[in-house]
Amino acid sequence: MSEKDFLTKEPRVLISAEKIQQRIDEIANQINKEYEGKEVMAICILKGASLFFADVIRRIKVPLRCEFMAMSSYGNEKKSSGEVKLVLDAKYPLEGQNVIVFEDIVDSGLTLTYILNLLKARNPASIRLCSLLFKPECLKKPLEVDYIGFEIGNEFVLGYGLDYEGYLRGLPYVGVLD
Ligand code: 5GP
Fold first, then answer.
1. How many domains does the chain have?
2. 163 in any annotated domain
């Protein structure tokens, strides 16, 4: 048996590509309404949020600029070490900007809490959080996520930007390996 057996199995679909795209329409419409007359500084948290980010920003009608940040990931483990490190920072100054941070999934919430505190210190005019997925059962400290795609249970998911041991990010749906 190969160590990469998971590559030969079709994951079980948890959230279909159609449902994801419908929900992204709703989120983008909400952002378009709430930011009417303003400019947005959209920050993508790499690598997991890349597909979600690309799909949302294509539907945003207000003037928008993009920045990218990367945090240390789980590596090959399925549980957060609780230690978050900044690997790539946004370049553009955020002072006075209406920032929206795009994340793939909120599990313990430690990553997004860390990013929020880091960015708040740069004095943006406003800052909101948008996550494709949210695991409410796993949250360690209260964290307000302004735009949530889907709430899911405590299970390890992959696809649509989320990886399994570095693979499977390109799947158009969110799935589970049983
Ligand atoms: P947190 O700091 O909220 O515990 O974890 C956030 C990060 O852990 C996410 O950005 C993601 O990279 C990773 N993560 C958490 N849960 C999952 C999951 O179910 N699947 C995958 N692929 N990554 C996850």
1. 1
2. no
